[in-house]
Design goal:
The protein has about 290 residues and is mainly α. The chain has 13 helices and no strands.
């Protein structure tokens, strides 16, 4: 009993650390974009992450079969949409806003499932949508205006991409080796982004510490190590408990943006963030674990 509790505690603390790393990457990425284009940044990040994953899990990567390649490419397309719109959006919005708007992917998942299954949305989903939409309005729409800022709108598309990614993972990933299919996704994002970056973005004349540290943190810790940790530790807890822990990601994004990024958190914005966080938690806790 004590051994099981200890393993569960270790697993959940590990995922809390993952959510902390993911939360801090918003500010680090935003700062790095002053010196490198978003697609070049993503290309270098994800290709580096794939190389590291291949070195650490060579046997699993060698299990990439033709079916795994096909499924991984489908799932990876939505991962690409999520990261591309998130990273470009970070150029035009605060890291705090980006963190919380990205978290709306959790709220979008049950809506998309309802549309796919051609079912009317339940009352709980409708309430969550109203709560989340109110939160989004408070953090993104300036008083007297009636539209989202460009950066927030881009990150909202990113949230849709991540929501579709969650659904695609649920539908396709269980058929294949989890490390292998994740490797396909990571490589697809890296190759496509690097190709776009080389075509349309200037290659940096130098790589300042802000860019190097952001690439290292996001590639090593926020991608490769986070995935391996999640894949190893998830058997010691439940999906619902892990999902609740990972809702700390936008909270950490907001904290780092406020403490070190100069983000201004007015009462209106804090209230909006609280409503988005509440909608995320209600969406997770309303599901069967």
């Amino acid at each position: 009993m004590l051994n099981n509790i200890s393993k569960r505690t270790q697993a959940e603390l590990s995922m809390l650390m993952v959510s902390f790393v993911w939360g801090t990457t918003f500010l680090m990425t935003k700062n790095a974009l002053d010196d490198i284009g978003p697609f070049l940044f993503l290309g270098i990040r994800f290709i580096s992450a794939f190389v590291l994953l291949a070195l650490l899990s060579r046997k699993n990567i060698l299990q990439i079969t033709a079916p795994a390649l096909k499924s991984g490419a489908i799932i990876g397309l939505f991962l690409l949409i999520g990261y591309a719109f998130q990273t470009v959006g970070l150029k035009y919005t605060s890291s705090s806003n980006a963190g919380f708007i990205t978290g709306l992917s959790v709220v979008l998942v049950p809506i998309i499932y309802s549309l796919i299954n051609r079912r009317l949305m339940g009352l709980s989903i409708i309430i969550n949508v109203i709560i989340a939409a109110t939160g989004l309005f408070l953090i993104s729409v300036q008083p007297g205006a009636f539209h989202l800022g460009r950066g927030d709108l881009l990150v909202l598309v990113c949230a849709l991409g991540f929501a579709l990614h969650i659904i695609a993972v649920d539908r396709y990933s269980h058929r294949h080796n989890p490390v292998a299919i994740t490797g396909v996704q990571i490589l697809l994002v890296g190759v496509v982004c690097l190709f776009i970056g080389l075509l349309f973005e200037p290659w940096p004349q130098s790589f300042p510490p802000s860019v190097i540290s952001a690439i290292l943190l996001t590639a090593v810790f926020a991608t490769t190590m986070a995935f391996l940790l999640q894949n190893t530790m998830q058997k010691y807890s439940t999906p619902t408990r892990f999902a609740v822990i990972l809702t700390m990601e936008p909270v950490f994004a907001g904290m780092t943006g406020y403490l070190w990024g100069g983000d201004i958190l007015t009462l209106r914005i804090v209230l909006g963030m609280a409503l988005i966080l509440a909608a995320m938690l209600l969406s997770i806790l309303g599901k069967k674990s």
